[in-house]
């Protein structure tokens, strides 16, 4: 990406381009959840983030963070050398997804039915 505040456009001129471009950024299963946790909890270390994203394996979290970092949505910062400690935070572009992630949460809250045998909140 040339400009960290812009997505690469591969379908310029098509009216569906903004939708597919956004989906390519957050369309993977865990990406919106990771972004949501970083929006809510601020910078987190790897283990803390894994605890917040219940059910994700270390490998999938690592791969997802690499992908989000490559897409300029997440920043990785080494905060300690010995032992190595890394924190992940959202970039400005990552923070700009807040209304999208909030809309996804709100839509799911309104339209998804809890299974009859599932836990009550």
UniProtKB/TrEMBL annotation:
InterPro entries from the UniProt entry: HTH_HxlR, WH-like_DNA-bd_sf, WH_DNA-bd_sf
Bilayer-spanning residue ranges: none
Residues annotated as domain HTH hxlR-type: 17-116
Keyword list, A-Z: DNA-binding, Transcription, Transcription regulation
The keyword Transcription belongs to this UniProt entry's keyword annotation: yes
Coiled coil region boundaries: none
One MF term in the entry's GO annotations: DNA binding
Keyword NADP: no
Name this polypeptide is given: Winged helix-turn-helix transcriptional regulator
Organism (species): Halospeciosus flavus
């Amino acid at each position: 990406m040339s400009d960290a505040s812009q997505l690469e456009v591969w379908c310029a001129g098509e009216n569906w381009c903004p939708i597919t471009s956004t989906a390519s950024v957050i369309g993977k299963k865990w990406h919106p959840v990771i972004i949501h946790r970083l929006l809510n909890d601020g910078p987190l270390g790897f283990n803390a983030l894994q605890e917040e994203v219940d059910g994700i394996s270390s490998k999938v979290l690592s791969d997802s963070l690499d992908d989000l970092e490559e897409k300029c949505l997440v920043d990785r910062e080494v905060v300690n050398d010995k032992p190595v400690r890394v924190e992940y935070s959202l970039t400005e572009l990552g923070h700009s997804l807040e209304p999208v992630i909030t809309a996804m949460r709100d839509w799911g809250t309104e339209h998804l039915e809890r299974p009859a045998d599932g836990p009550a909140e």
